[in-house]
Amino acid sequence: MPVELVPVTPLAHCAAREPLREPQPRKMNKLCRQVSIESPGLAGRDCVFSFDIPVPDVPANGARIRVVCAGACYRPRRSPSQTSLTSVSSTGSLLSQDVSQEGDLPVNLPHYGVRDAALFPGYEVAGTVESLGSEIKENCGYAVGDRVILYPYDGVPNGYAEYMVVHDLKYLIKIPDSMELSVAAMLPTGALLAMNTVFAAHEHVQALLAERGDNSVCKILIVGTGGLALWAMRIAAYHFSNMKNRVTITIASLKDDGLMMAKEFKRVNVVQWNEDLYEKQLIERTMDACQGLVDVVIDFGTTSRSLHRSLQCLGKGGVVFVIREVADRLLPKFSRRAEERQQSIKPVDPGSLQQLEELVQLVASGQIEPPPHTVYPAEEAFDVVQKLCHSEIQGRAILRFYPTD
């Protein structure tokens, strides 16, 4: 697995560490660093902010986590009208684009690299248990020093801080010692969403093949770039491995990621979606790569243009799986059109706690290989965003708050 490590030094704004655990956790009257990353705007506009915040107190029935690694992604900015996102990098979409106030017309920005995990600002977190609450019993299953990730439950705190707390230990998942925390940080959101989407598609594929007979083939098109598409491709290859002669997978990708995917996965077809081409040309190019209309589309795009193109490449009775947040915005426009073509658009949620536990085991055992990633010190968050904006980072970018795993 290709991983590039950048030298890391501890954050200077965090005071000396407290003992790992005391019988009665006391308040820590010190500050730690928190980073806020907003969606990149026009060139030159600041999008990374750093604050000194109080170290959070340990919940009586929870734990305090020392964050070691966090996946680099950003918080979308909202327009003054509060009716639409004005700078949303697509979660694996065609290009890094703004969305107009109508919510469907892409507006190009000068950055094209930032396109992954925008739905999860600071939720991809891996670290160690620093303290347990005063009401936690010794047989709770967790101990100070355990390496963990945090399931992104409703109300989960932002993870771009040196410390964060969880009020219920059930949301923590232990990480095997064999797994790097930089890899673990990619699992709770982007990888989990990709896994749940592939699971949903798997059910449809099985039903379709059973209906068509023994010699039938199901065609799958995965739309997107960045971490989501990379994870989906790997997870799909694993879950469809027992029916590889009956399932074909094609990736609709930007040039940079497409070349990497084609090199890594010989059995996966890749079609380049060059936005400089006319829509008709892109649809024809996609159907040529897929050898006709497809049966299933996993669309990680966030724009109407992406969904419209996916439906054009989809056959009668086909299904498009889209992220829930995107479906809520685009379904009113496309539901009638899909019905007329006897197609369906199905929203997909981020995934369950049980799926995340399974994903940890699959990655730890080597059955699913994580995408390439690069680790950077948290102090370099601004430089990381700039590199993402210029497509200078392949795979995922991970921020490290502490130098040791």
UniProtKB/TrEMBL annotation:
Residues 44-399 form the Enoyl reductase (ER) domain. The keyword Metal-binding applies. Gene3D superfamilies: Medium-chain alcohol dehydrogenases, catalytic domain, NAD(P)-binding Rossmann-like Domain. One of its GO terms (molecular function) is metal ion binding. InterPro entries: ADH-like_N, ER, GroES-like_sf, NAD(P)-bd_dom_sf, Zn_alcohol_dh. SMART domains: PKS_ER. Pfam families: ADH_N, ADH_zinc_N_2. This is Uncharacterized protein LOC107217150 isoform X1. Keywords: Metal-binding, Oxidoreductase, Zinc. It comes from the Eukaryota.
